[in-house]
Design brief:
By secondary structure, the chain is of the alpha/beta class. The protein has eleven helices and seven strands. The chain binds S-adenosyl-L-homocysteine.
Length: 254
């Protein structure tokens, strides 16, 4: 697949950016590396003259930017998502360095829509946001000063994406291809499965939403690691639906 097509399937998502200047800087960073799709989740101030000024020749990316109320909306049709986090979290998805993770993102881009998700300037990605990602990337830094400016973090990843996309031998998918392979499930389909699973576990008394503990983050980590296919989501939801059916066998014999 042509590198330009792979790059066109990658969206850069900025969660709750506070400073419009950083949105402009991100657009400029992206355009210099051949990326074009910017999504904003709940930006504090946008559109904005400061964003336009910092974007310089990349104002077209700002004009075409998608704006969403939630991260889930921004990711609805994606099949693979990587979150950017300067900090290691004990409940988050597996974490790696930019180069190997970018190779995985491009391999997935050969199959469908993918995303890189960046956090708010002050607080970074929330646990809830990071748990919507299959994997996380931490840019190696000075351990005493590890937080890059948002626009700079976008630049580092955009550069790595361009280098990897234009490699002579493009990255190959890490998915094992079998004759029965189905398309990857989309973010929305997998979120629907998590909601269904949570409801069934709650009804069964296995899970108490008032005392959630670590169950859902751990299950998200498990299923995020294996990247579910659409058929697999349908099977899992079929099993869940079957457990919700009244059995009709008159089991209440006490
Ligand atoms: N103070 C925040 C950092 C915010 S920087 C925190 O501690 O998490 C804004 C965003 O840029 C981060 O949410 C992350 O997406 C990205 N970023 C900054 N430095 C990074 C690093 N070293 N590795 C990965 N992402 C980084």
């Amino acid at each position: 697949m042509k590198p330009e097509i792979l790059l066109s399937r990658i969206r850069i998502v900025l969660c709750r950016p506070s400073h419009p200047g950083n949105i402009g800087a991100a657009a400029r960073a992206m355009k210099t590396m051949g990326l074009s799709r910017l999504s904003l989740v709940n930006p504090k101030q946008f559109p904005d003259a400061e964003a336009d000024a910092r974007a310089t020749g990349a104002v077209d990316l700002l004009q075409q930017a998608e704006i969403h109320a939630t991260l889930q909306d921004a990711l609805a049709d994606t099949i693979f998502v990587i979150g950017l986090s300067a900090r290691q979290r004990d409940l988050g998805p597996e974490i790696g360095e930019p180069r190997p993770m970018v190779a995985r993102l491009l391999a997935a881009a050969a199959e469908g829509e993918v995303a890189l998700v960046f956090g708010n300037e002050t607080v970074g990605l929330s646990n809830d946001e990071l748990q919507q990602c299959h994997a996380a990337v931490s840019i190696p830094t000075n351990p005493d000063f590890s937080s890059l400016n948002l626009g700079s973090a976008v630049q580092v990843l955009s550069y790595e994406l361009r280098m990897a996309a234009f490699l002579e031998s493009p990255p190959v998918s890490d998915t094992v291809v079998t004759p029965f392979v189905s398309p990857s499930a989309t973010h929305n389909e997998v979120e629907g499965f998590y909601a269904h699973l949570e409801a069934v576990m709650t009804a069964a008394g296995f899970y108490n939403p008032a005392q959630p503990g670590r169950l859902m983050p751990k299950l998200r980590r498990l299923f995020g690691r294996i990247r579910l296919e659409r058929d697999e989501v349908n099977i899992l939801r079929g099993i869940l639906a079957a457990t919700q059916q009244p059995t009709g066998h008159g089991t209440r014999n006490s």
